[in-house]
């Protein structure tokens, strides 16, 4: 990716921080767009010398001019900016503005600037309850039956992506994170497993409000999926599941206790309103095909001139 410039929205969040770290390691120039200037996650994840290489842009996703300006001159966009479930519940109009209008602004900027590598975060919240599906691990194409406004707005973003491709020829890749955990994950409904680990290390009691089984996705691994997807040449408006390890919250809590020898970590029994996992086979296939294509192209470039 040397010589490329990538715009990352939601840049100050957990996933944004890890994405930026990986982009910098790949030699990519980074434009970090976020309304927040709180860089505590960057300090945790990205080294001080690398942080100096980042172009920070304080901006509001709901302001189309600001998004358009930030996207000028970039070759890729990784769109992670959003308000998560608790914040959407607290301020519904703002949630819709950031999550839906903000995404339209990103797609419009990509279209106006002819940026053909656009990756955005959808969510497992686009699906319904686990009992709405026959299998515990469902395909990314399964029926959308969201039970939250956050999920409805993520569905709207997938439809936005589809129309921008069919009507305006702008391809994109949407990825479906489930339960991201790891350093920097401290916000959102599914951040509680990470908070439980941190509490145990500090020997502070913590209660995870839910139970059941979840697809646990380590933040650096999920970030790598986003970065690799930004290299794809999508055929339309693709949507893929991410990888991860399916485990029960009970197993997760027991693992915390065994590792830390701290026992005051508990969990509830209520299930979260979505399936256990989303199959990632289509993403693996797309990534593998892109790698083979790039390797073939490199080999052709090495042929002797006769």
- CATH level-1 class of the domain at 5-179 and 219-243: Alpha Beta
Global Rg: 20 Å
| Oligomerization status of the protein chains | single chain
Poorly predicted runs: 295-301
Tally of helical runs = 11
The second-level CATH architecture of the domain at 5-179 and 219-243 is: 3-Layer(aba) Sandwich
List keywords for this structure.
three-stranded mixed sheet, globular, 306 residues, Rossmann fold
Notes on the protein architecture:
With 306 residues, the chain is α/β, with parallel strands linked by helices. It has a domain at 5-179 and 219-243: Rossmann fold. Helix content is 43%, strand content 19%. It is built from 11 helices and 14 strands. The chain has helices at 14-25, 40-45, 48-51, 64-71, 85-90, 92-112, 149-168, 192-201, 219-229, 249-260, 281-301; strands spanning 5-9, 29-34, 55-58, 76-79, 117-121, 137-138, 172-176, 179-181, 206-208, 213-218, 237-241, 245-248, 265-267, 277-278. The strands form 4 sheets. It has a 7-stranded parallel beta sheet, sandwiched between helices. α1 (14-25) links the parallel β1 and β2 (29-34). α6 runs parallel beside α7 (149-168) and α8 (192-201) packs parallel to α10. The longest helix is centred in the middle third of the chain and has 21 residues, at 92-112. The chain starts with a strand and ends in a 5-residue tail after the last helix.
